[in-house]
# Entry
Amino acid sequence: MRQIAILDDYKNASRSAADWESLPETDVCVFNDTIAGEDALASALAPFQIIVIMRERTAFPKSLLDRLPRLELLITTGMRNLSVDMKAARDNGVTVCGTQMMRNAPFELTWALIMAITRKIPAENAAMHEGGWHEAVGTGLQGKTLGILGLGRLGTLIAGIGLAFDMKVIAWSQNLTADKAAEVGVSRVEQDELFAQSDVLSIHLLLSERTTGIVGARELSLMKKSAYLINTARGAIVDENALIAALQNRQIAGAALDVFDVEPLPRDHPFRQLDNTLLTGHVGYTIDELYPLVYGQAVENIAHWLNGDAVRVLNAMDDT
# Structure
């Protein structure tokens, strides 16, 4: 019997989303809660030959992979996972496969957060349920400036809606050119201008050494007191302590956050205590339609691999 572990299935959705019983001579174990710490992970995962992970909820660096000698197949939802050391996996004889994702789900959540925080929907909803009426006064978007940090595929989608709302849309990233920005109706500005001019600043960068902490105390100090920061990308792109200080001091109007340095977010985290934060638990890609897609393809990946014909392989070439 091959042992299969499914990690970080917060909603306990994997069992019913796919036909795991179709896999011959396998036994499936689902972990609903995040296993914290490499020692605990290495101990819990030691018996498993196959591990299925949900995006980047649990990282698999070389140090962990080296402690899992029985591991043969690692499946990540999504066709990219920067928290897995692909080369170390290959060197250890571990095949890494991916699945498709719901490509527009994070884009939809970003706009849900923008609308909710600017129109004060959480406060208004809470007041209505408590018997109140017309508790909050929101901010309109027409004529305001939407700043996009990272004008890739998702950033371009975000820009399109901003333009539809008759917003001025500006963008910056290290490799963005004025011509590329103009192709989608956006103005390229310099980094400091992006922070200074934006009424809503939305982050859409990949996390890397270059982008870690790129939004720090200096950048936040350039923002308007009336501005909102939206982060559905990765928590570490923003200096968390600097953002907490900016929110506590009302240096900016508020922040809508779906991603954090430590996930799940600790119960006593300062973000939970601030009245100018709108928080969701890294749900950008998790919608009803996601689970049958990703777990169904995970089962397909395992079946093909058991037959010696691996599909959707992510570490076949020399990746770092």
Q: What stands out?
A: The chain is about 30% helix and 15% strand.
